[in-house]
Amino acid sequence: MLRKLLSHAVIYGLAAQAPRLAGVLALPIITRYLTPADYGVAGIVTAYVSVFTMLLTLGLSVVMMNSFARQPQRYPWVWRQLNGFVTLWSLVYGSLVIVALYFLVPEEGAAHRLEIALLAGLPIMLFTMTELQSNIYFQLSQKPLPLAFRSFIVGALGVALNIYTIAYLGLGFRGWFYAGFISVGVGFLLNSYHVYIRQKLWPIFNFKWSRIKSSLRISLPVIPHNLANFMLDTSDKLVLNILHVPVQRIGLYNVASSFGTYFLLASMAVTQAASPFYLTYLAQQKDRAAALQVRHLTFALLALFLFATTLGSLWMREIFIVLIKNETLQQAYPLAIIILMGYNYRPMYLAVMNTLTYREHTNKLWRLSVVAGVGNVLLNFILVPIFGYQAAAYTTFAALMYMGYSGFYIRAYKDSSLVPYYPMAWMALTVLLLFIVYELATMAITVKIIVTAIAGVGAIVAAVVYRRNLKLQL
Questions:
Q1: How many CB atoms lie within 10 A of CB 191?
Q2: pLDDT tens, 62-74?
Q3: Extended strands (E) in 5-131
Q4: Cβ atoms of 381 and 239 closer than 8 Å
Q5: Confidence check: pLDDT of 474 > 50
Q6: Are 99 and 237 found together in one domain?
């Protein structure tokens, strides 16, 4: 039911993601003590950490989710074997990550190479698999409160430590890494209680290789897909670094892209709450009524995303003035508009990805994700030297649009789809809204107030009308 979806989204969002989003409120405090170079170093290192973390689990989260849905009595046995395998793998992999990070820290942070490598690398080695199991279990069990409580504690601690280490101790970019290491460590302790004490999901180190091999056959094709997601969300900063763009300008880009990250965190509240509904309806493979409900849910999510990003982009200049107490960093707000509007791809992408994943067509995902990711990287290498670092925002937007809408033309999806989604119409609307808010961003505040009021009234009317069609059940 819709009420259940919204209540779960509120729990995921207000409790789980609110402390992380509270980092936005910390910006007026910490940006006084940060420079574009600080943002540049942190952005580059964090980009590497993101891809290393993603590769650690070898895409096995897909197998864990499928086993939970299809084998509710046997999934603990599957999870424990996968945990044993990944735990042993992480010791070797994590050691290599620490060594790699040592040499990948930019020259501006060279004096703290070992410090940053250990703070960023050890959590990958020690904490990742436990967090993954905890997140998947509580999400698919529709028990958001424990997950929200843990996320609230970790997020609030991280924000407080950011303020303490950056504003009080004056550690600059190092403050982010100290805060991250400590808060993730606390999260590991909280996760361990639920995973190992309550659920008894201790790793089985004497696992069956046949189980691991069969799982990897399903999961490994997901890695290029996940890597492409990294290319879209994070690789821009690495490409800019490779092209020898000054770290200060990479820092400006990092500030702009961080607002896309904040929206991504907020949107995860809704998409996490929606996932069980998608799985329920996708299980009814030949039911047109179920397919219509999936479409209603997808359209509702997309309308919500468009409304939020459009208003956020309209007021982006004022948001930067209020939150970023650094005139140099405030210059990045136009790029933030472009990147933020790109994240409207997620609802339509979610519909395609859930369908292909549930049908175990994971080997088809690369056709939309890898093309988008590689295309983004190649366009950056071509356009950034010509048009400057700002071009990375435009290539990211284009790649995200491809990512969100090209999946509807994959044969594996078309063969199982029972209702049309009109992807080109939705993409055209997104592009049109981008042009409108980009032009209106510099308008007088009175004009923005009028536009916001009209949009708000229209959204309320649309929500009341559309709510009648959205009758979710579990």
A1: 25
A2: 777 777 767 777 7
A3: none
A4: yes
A5: no
A6: no
